[in-house]
Write a structure and sequence with these properties.
Blueprint: H1 10-21, E1 39-44, H2 66-82, H3 84-92, E2 136-137, E3 142-143, H4 155-173, H5 176-179, H6 185-188, H7 196-207, E4 227-229, E5 235-244, E6 250-264, E7 272-285, E8 299-308, H8 324-330, E9 337-338, H9 347-351, E10 360-362
Parallel strand pairs: 1-8, 1-10, 3-5, 9-10
Antiparallel strand pairs: 2-5, 4-6, 5-6, 6-7, 7-8
């Protein structure tokens, strides 16, 4: 069911396809992804950096008159408009504990504060000591915008495209079967089958995973002979945005961070680790009259992935997290440092300076 209007019917999709086959306004083009498959596998450190300082607003002096209050209110409203993410940090979710954060409506102005190093995760509290303790559960942490008519789509059609875009995130990153290693069939079914380069990548990635053809670039999967998921909650934070793309398409961008708590596969070992994955996936919901596509599917424009504690130099096609006891024995990693919870920078900026040939270091888990 779509938001903001009725769902687009199968008959409408068929009509669009027939128009495409008939060559309406020129022959439809075959889509090709400029897929940017970048994966960073970051080893966590045992130590944690000093916490980011929180902002403390200046105290208001009294006795200056109501005109001062009016100016402050006006300035405050302007600041909210210019930097809503930071205001959310201060008032909507800057507190500690498990108080839920307000939805992420824009890129935050800074990373979340660092928790005490003494707050280690447990089987009962797998997100303890992590900013994710205040994030949403599953789709609750993913902000979906209000639909409006865009490009070739009506408001109702955009609403359905947004719903299906979120369905892809669920099927590729939150589905319990996929997390345990099953084929992400529901997710793949949403990708345009006529996008040959992407289909070739998918076929190779699951048949013979490698550095260049890695299913972990798009899908979250764990090596169940080594680890087991703790509980049934995956914490998320991120948002979906959209705009008019090429040839009148509706281009949807998803930027979401997922936090997966895991324990050793062997029973009786209560050590808990977390794998943190940030993904940016750009999807194009194309006009079938202009692009060769199947009804109800999108073409991939680009996809980027940045992973902390998924396994260094891991080409198995599955995440293989490292546990605190192993890190204590091997020592901290080296290389490019990244705070996996920092959503204040774009994925492009995050990738700058990262050497894909070496493993980096996550500054916290």
């Amino acid at each position: 069911m779509s938001k903001g209007g009725a769902s687009i019917s199968d008959e409408e999709w068929e009509r669009f396809q027939k128009e495409a086959e008939a060559g309406t306004q020129g022959a439809p083009e075959e889509p090709s992804a400029r897929a940017r498959m970048v994966t960073r596998r970051l080893r966590e450190e045992t130590g944690r950096p000093e916490g980011w300082r929180t902002h403390e607003p200046a105290r208001q002096r009294r006795g200056k008159g109501w005109y001062v209050v009016g100016l402050l209110v006006a300035a405050g409203m302007l600041f909210v408009a210019l930097d809503p993410g930071r205001v959310t940090d201060w008032f909507g979710g800057g507190g500690g504990g498990d108080t839920p954060l307000a939805a992420e409506s824009a890129r935050p102005g800074r990373p979340p504060a660092t928790e005490s190093a003494a707050q280690q995760p447990t089987l009962q509290q797998p997100f303890r000591g992590s900013p994710a303790a205040q994030w949403g559960d599953g789709t609750a942490g993913i902000t979906v915008p209000e639909a409006r008519a865009t490009g070739w789509m009506s408001k109702a059609q955009v609403a359905q495209a947004l719903d299906r875009s979120r369905d892809f995130l669920v099927a590729s990153n939150l589905d319990s079967g996929v997390l345990l290693g099953r084929s992400p069939e529901k997710a793949i079914a949403l990708i345009n089958p006529d996008q040959k380069d992407v289909q070739d990548y998918l076929a190779t990635a699951f048949r013979a995973p490698s550095h260049d053809d890695d299913p972990l670039t798009l899908f979250s999967r764990f090596a169940t002979e080594k680890v087991r998921l703790v509980g049934d909650v995956v914490k998320t934070r991120g948002r979906i945005t959209y705009r008019e793309g090429k040839r009148g398409a509706v281009e949807v961008t998803t930027d979401v961070t997922y936090v997966y708590p895991v324990a050793h596969a062997a029973e009786g070992r209560d050590e808990v680790a977390r794998t943190i994955v940030r993904r940016e996936v750009v999807m194009s919901w194309d006009d079938p009259a202009k692009v060769i596509t199947e009804p109800g599917t999108f073409s991939l424009v680009s996809y980027k992935s940045d992973t902390a504690n998924g396994g260094c130099d891991n080409d198995t096609g599955f995440y293989v997290p490292e546990f605190p006891s192993a890190r204590a024995a091997t020592g901290p990693g080296a290389g490019h440092e990244v705070d996996p919870y920092d959503r204040s920078t774009s994925m492009d900026a995050r990738m700058q300076g990262a050497d894909d040939a070496e493993c980096g270091t996550a500054t916290r888990s």
